Amino acid sequence: MSWGLFKRNVLRQTNPNYNSLNINRVAKIWADEYDACVKRGRDLINGEAVQSGNKQIMETLFRVALLKGLSTPPGVNFSLPNEFGNGVKAYWAGAPMNPFPIPLIPAPGTIQNLVVNSNIVSNVGVWPLYPPLKPVKKQEIMVNMFILAAIVHLFSIGGFIQTTSLYPSAPSPIPAPAVIPWTAYIIPPAIPIPNINFPSADGSEPAVIQQPDDNTVSEVGPTQEYELPTDGLDGDSSFTDGLDGDSSFEDIVNTTLGDDIDDIGDGNPINKQIEEFKKQLVAIRPDCIKN
Known about the structure:
It is built from 8 helices and 8 strands. The strands form 3 sheets. It has a 3-stranded antiparallel beta sheet, with no helix packed on it. A 3-stranded antiparallel beta sheet has the order 6-7-8, with no helix packed on it. The chain has a two-stranded antiparallel ribbon with strand order 1-5. The chain is elongated, with a radius of gyration of 21 Å. The chain is of the alpha+beta class. It has 2 domains: 2-189 and 243-288, no CATH class; 193-235, no CATH class. The chain starts with a helix and ends in a 7-residue tail after the last helix.
C-alpha cells in the first residue's frame, strides 16, 4: 500500500543505527516521502493527481517542528504529528493539480467537459489534532500517528476545476467556461507492481497484469490477473481496488490505513481516534463528510 511504502521509507531512512542524521536531513526525508506518497493519489471524484505542492515550504515547517520538539522541556505537552500538520497544509496551499484526465462528470449546467483549463487546490483542509499523549517510545508509533492524521486531512481538502464545457443549446451545444468543485483526495490502498504480459499477435488473448497477492516482489507465489483498463478514470487499478464502491469516510480511512498501521500508542484504539478526528472535521467543515 502507498502509506505502507511511506512508512517503510521513513523508518528506514531515519534509523539512527544506519544513518548519520541531523534535523535538516530528517525534515527533507519526511517532506520527500510525503510528496512522493500524495503524488500516487487522486482526488476522489475525478481521479486527478496533485502536480506539484509547496514541498520546500513544507520541509521548512517540518524543520521548525523538529526544532520545537528538541527545545520543549520534559513534561510539557508536545505532539510532533500535530506540528507537522502546519507543513502539510502549507504544501497544499494553491497547489496545482494535473489537468488530466478530463472529468467524466459534466460541470454543473453542462452536458460534457471538453478541456481542463486549470485545477487548483483552494482549501487546504483541516489537520486533525491529537490530544495530549505520553511521549511515544517507538518511532513507528509516531509515524503511524502522522499517517492516520494525514489520511483524515486529505478527506477535507478541496479545490475548483475550471473547464471549457458544452452547454445545451439549439441547434447545437455551445462551448463556454465552467467550474467543477471537488472535495477529498485519497491515496490508493495498494501500489501495483505490474508484470505485463502483452496481447497475443492474433488478438485472441488480451494483455494482463500479473501481480503477487501480497503486492511484493520479493516472494514468488500465486498471482492475480487483471485485464488492463481501457478508460482514463480507472487507469490506475490501485485507485479503486479495495473500496468496493463505498466512498464513505470510514471505509476510505480504514481501507487506506492498511493492516500494518495498527498502533498509535498510549492505549488509544485507532477506531476511537478516527471517530474523534471525524468530529473535528465535521465541526469545522461539515460539507467534507457525506456518509
